[in-house]
Amino acid sequence: MDQEIKSFVTTSHSGCGVRRSVGAGLGLLLATLALSAPVRVAELPVIAVQPGQAARVASYDGQVEALRQAVIAAQVPGAVLELNVRAGDTVRAGQVLLRIDARAAEQSAAASSAQVAAARAALDVAATELARKRALAQKSYISQGALEQAESQYRAAQAQLNAQAAQAGAARTQTGFHVVRAPFDGVVSQLTVERGDMAMPGRPLLTVYDPAELRVAAHVPASALKGGTGGAQVLLSGVAAAITPARVQVLPTVDPQSLTQQVRAELPAGTTAAPGQFARLQLVAPTVDAGQGRRLFIPAAAVVRRAEVTAAYVLGADQRPQLRQLRLGPVQGEQVEVLSGLDAGEQLITDPQAATRAVAGSH
Q1: Closest CA to 199 of 321, 78, 347
Q2: What radius of gyration, in Å, describes the C-alpha atoms of the chain?
Q3: What is the tens place of the pLDDT at every residue in 228-285?
Q4: Contact 297, 49 (CB under 8 A)
Q5: Phi, psi at residue 268, to the nearest 5°?
Q6: SS3 269
Q7: What is residue 54's predicted lDDT score, i.e. its pLDDT?
Q8: Of 177, 179, 172, 176, which Cα lies nearest the Cα of 201?
Q9: Are residues 234 and 298 in the same domain?
Q10: How far is it, in rounded angstroms, from Cα 289 to Cα 337?
Q11: Boundaries of domain holding 34
């Protein structure tokens, strides 16, 4: 352990404060896994660090969007009497979100129902009269014209009943517009009214989105999409690791002013994000940048991060694991570039936890 700590501190920056911080981080790392079963050095997974050519990675600003998002507006005027949700609440399909004053609509529906009853009574009278006139016409007590007049009155009463019934149905439907329900399972992202506010037709009341289906939309120059979107990655604000999108779609239209196309990268299920959140879309070009030369890349899983310390385990000349401090560059998929701290040909241990247990078990 003394030899490892000496090797690790030698590669760190000068300064007593940094040495103490690095030593504390290393001690915490070793103490965490000291109780695990020791691992023999021969069992450690090791790869040789080899230089490679890096593909050009371009990053474009974008934002998170919801595939399903509904701006719910009022269909009828009235005061908001009941408000059951707040911004950020999770709602279920069909759940009552708010209620608008429906007293006038209910009175209109009641009046329409009464008119339907009156029209039905008039139809009954016309039907009775028609039956009586038919009986008299069979005995030749009345003329054919009188019978036809009774039949016409019956048809008019029937049409009146149908019209009143349709009007009553419209009144009942109008009453239902005063109850606003959730169109699907989702989250309330925005609320633009409060209890007591006046709702007007077309005025937005709230916004609901489905958090299970999200995407990142970015505008990319059309010239950068000639090689396709293979290897696309998404970086979300507040999330360190890059996300591989489930699907990438390039819209066929090109903006005539900016000469860009919109690229939509659908996020995998379970990704935590919100519409409007800042994001970056990374696209890997199929060609290699000229003049960049060959650089060193290692698996991102082999990197050890403890506080301000970024390091990796390598096999030293004595075939024992040594913790080597690194300075890293950008992440490209599952690989990360090493700017300093490693040389080509060195033996890198790809399982840092197994290396830590091997170090702890050797003392």
Answers
A1: 78
A2: 38
A3: 887 888 999 878 788 999 999 999 999 999 999 999 999 998 898 999 999 999 887 6
A4: no
A5: -65, 155
A6: coil
A7: 56
A8: 177
A9: no
A10: 15
A11: 2-53+292-361
Q: Which of 20, 39, 12 is nearest to 321 (CA)?
A: 39
Query: CA 232, CA 58: separation in Å to the nearest integer?
Result: 10
Q: How far is CA 164 from CA 103, 109, 154, in A?
A: 21, 11, 15
Q: Which residues pair with 190 in a beta bridge?
A: 207
Rounded to two decimals, the pTM is 0.55
Residues 242, 275, single domain; the answer is: yes
Kind and range of the H or E run holding 330: strand 327-332
For residues 197 and 224, state if they share a domain. Answer: no
Check whether residue 40 and residue 144 sit in a common domain.
no
Spell out the residues 6+ positions from residue 102 whose beta carbon is closer than 8 angstroms to its own. 78, 175, 178, 179
**Mean pLDDT score of the chain:** 83
Gap between the Cα atoms of 186 and 207, Å rounded: 10
Predicted pLDDT at 266:
95
The shares of helix, strand and coil residues in the chain, as percent rounded to the nearest 5, are 30, 35, 35
329 neighbors 319 (Cβ within 8 angstroms): no
Let me know if 262 is exposed, middle or buried by CB neighbors in 10 A (0-12, 13-18, 19+).
Answer: middle
Residues 223 and 204 in one domain: no
CA 132 to CA 151: how far, in whole Å?
11
The token pair that represents 181 in the structure block? 């329900």
CB 354 within 8 A of CB 42: no
Asked whether residue 88 is domain-assigned, the answer is: yes
CA separation for the pair 317, 285 (Å, rounded): 39
Q: Are residues 192 and 318 in the same domain?
A: no
